[in-house]
Design brief:
Elements: H1 3-57, E1 81-83, E2 90-96, H2 101-119, E3 123-129, H3 132-137, H4 141-154, H5 158-167, H6 180-187, H7 196-204, H8 208-220, E4 228-231, E5 234-235, H9 246-258
Parallel strand pairs: 2-3
Antiparallel strand pairs: 1-3, 2-4, 4-5
């Protein structure tokens, strides 16, 4: 065999060996990428599962202990906080959540009219408290603020404190009302409310179970969301074709009073 042929065969073998080595390197890289992707996928899944578990576990505080209704609460299971005179011919039932932005909007627009009609003796208001945002966003601000409002009712200061909470409502994603210290701080805006009895009621969660029961009643009622506003049993706030206004509310109440 000539030297030239031997060199050609050796060169072919070398090329084959080199190609095999390159293929092995490609296979190693591919296996590394597959393993890396699998690890990332597992870690990503773990992160998602962790997030779901965190949200599921942070679905609002679970209340324990007996159901203690606030002073003067009325209706089935004493879940309504009444404001106004019993002799009023019209009753406005309002379901609200202190973390609910739409509830704040309703209050900002209708607060003065509702207070005026109530002060005039034409309208009795029954406030019902829900804790929907705790369930939707996580946290416990809806529950904590509902308890604090019930504590204010014990002190005869519900209306004033109710208004203060909505006027100082944090952004929906900010669970500031979960902090009892913040709720007690806001009580300082209501004359005569920042007392030892109020602080104890807030810190001990005296009405937590009552607030949970109130939210259960809201869910059982089949309402679409908060605020739900019923005038003499009729839902008057959700009709987009004939939207409610403060003037329309006053007109409806005055018509009943005249009739």
């Amino acid at each position: 065999m000539s030297e030239k042929n031997r060199d050609g065969k050796r060169s072919a073998r070398e090329r084959l060996i080199e190609e095999r080595e390159r293929q092995k390197a490609r296979d190693r890289r591919r296996r590394t990428l597959i393993v890396s992707a699998a690890v990332v996928g597992v870690l990503g899944l773990a992160a998602v599962v962790g997030l779901i578990a965190a949200n599921a576990g942070d679905d609002g505080e679970e209340a324990s202990g007996p159901v203690v209704a606030p002073s003067g609460a009325t209706g089935k299971d004493a879940l309504a906080i009444p404001v106004g005179k019993d002799s009023a011919k019209s009753t406005l039932v309002i379901w609200e959540d202190f973390r609910c932005p739409a509830c704040k909007s309703f209050e900002d627009n209708y607060r003065d009219t509702i207070h005026e009609l109530s002060d005039e003796g034409q309208l009795k208001v029954e406030y019902h408290l829900a804790t929907l945002i705790d369930g939707n966003m996580g946290g416990s601000g809806s529950l904590r603020s509902a308890n604090a409002a019930a504590c204010a009712q014990d002190a005869g200061k519900f209306t004033e404190y109710h208004d203060v909470l909505f006027q100082n409502q944090p952004p929906e994603t900010d669970d500031a009302f979960a902090k009892n210290d913040r709720l007690i701080e806001l009580a300082g805006k209501v004359e005569g409310l920042d007392t030892a009895a109020f602080k104890q009621c807030v810190n001990e969660g005296t009405h937590d179970s009552w607030a949970v029961k109130s939210n259960e009643a809201f869910q059982a009622g089949g309402f679409q969301g908060t605020p739900t506003v019923l005038l003499n049993g009729e839902n008057i706030f959700g009709d987009q074709q004939n939207p409610l206004t403060p003037d329309k509310l006053r007109q409806k109440v005055e018509e009943v009073a005249k009739g």
